[in-house]
Amino acid sequence: MDHDVVIIGAGIAGLNAAVTAARYGLDTLVIDKLGAGGQVINVDRIENFPGPAEGMSGFELGPALQMQADEAGAEFALDSVEKLEKIEGGFRIIGSELNLTASAVIIAAGSSRRKLGVPGEAEFEGRGVSHCASCDGPLLRGKSVCVVGGGDSALDEALALSAHAEQVRIVHRGERPTARHSLVESCRATANIEFIPARTVERINGDDGGVTSVTLLDRNADTGSELPCHAVFVYVGLEPNVDFLPDGIELAPDGRISVDLTMESSLSGVFAAGDVRSQSVAHLAASAGDGVTAAIYAARYLKTIKVSPSASS
Fold first, then answer.
1. Residue 156 within a domain
2. How does pLDDT run across 203-229, given as a tens digit for each residue?
3. pTM (2 decimals)?
4. By residue range, what is the domain housing residue 259?
5. HEC string of the chain?
6. Residues designated as active site
């Protein structure tokens, strides 16, 4: 085998798994298509992970964890994994460029942002439709923006956008946002943030210059209206990244990987950590714990199949 363990995904779960696996003496490779931190690198301020009281940015946290993993001896590769196969004695991981083997695999591939699936969304992607407030917020100074979604991510991004945009309107399906109480209160206390409840976005409108408005449906009155805005930030949930998995891995009804308490999947030797696994609470600190657990039990698994650390290559 090329490696003792290959970790697919360099988000918080994957990086903590890498630190732990490497410290256990395992020949460890981390593969990710985005780089250290995964999607968290786009978050302006992280408050649900142990650290400074004032929080930190994802751009700081990701590289810090990668440095720990690198110092522990883990290796990193930038690639998109397209297929995972069970082979005799281990697994084959096939990427757009890489083709390698491992005795055990930890899947920490995370999730991708769910799309609205409405007219105009694809057309105006990158021209007003965005998923990154820290990237595009500074370009919207003095303008009106719309954030779609009522969860933690949506409200986090709304707060980040409020520092740049003149007006931030949060459109969400329910009567109340589902984000944690502290975030809701912070948004309510911010003068240029407004909640628009019980609405769904039916269409994103625009012209050659980009987004100009969204068409909303009032879920209570079944009537439509136009909301002028210069950009739409979509945060309506996540889809687990599991397209590359072999058929032998059992998935939960929500499409995430079913695991036991050791983070092992139904396919022996394959572990899952973070929000790609079933029953995840989608909290960064919990994802970090998942990664540590998966790495420890991967090391124990390798002992049971008599693969000694750093001897599989």
1. yes
2. 999 999 999 999 999 988 888 899 999
3. 0.77
4. 3-112+238-304
5. CCEEEEEECCCHHHHHHHHHHHHCCCCEEEEECCCCCHHHHHCCCECCCCCCCCCECHHHHHHHHHHHHHHHCCEEEECCEEEEEEECCEEEEEECCCEEEEEEEEECCCEEECCCCCCCCCCCECCCEECCHHHHHHHHCCCEEEEECCCHHHHHHHHHHHCCCCEEEEECCCCCCCCCHHHHHHHHCCCCEEEECCEEEEEEEEECCEEEEEEEEECCCCEEEEEECCEEEECCCEEECCCCCCCCCCECCCCCECCCCCCECCCCCEEECHHHECCCCCCHHHHHHHHHHHHHHHHHHHHHCCCCCCCCC
6. 132, 135-136
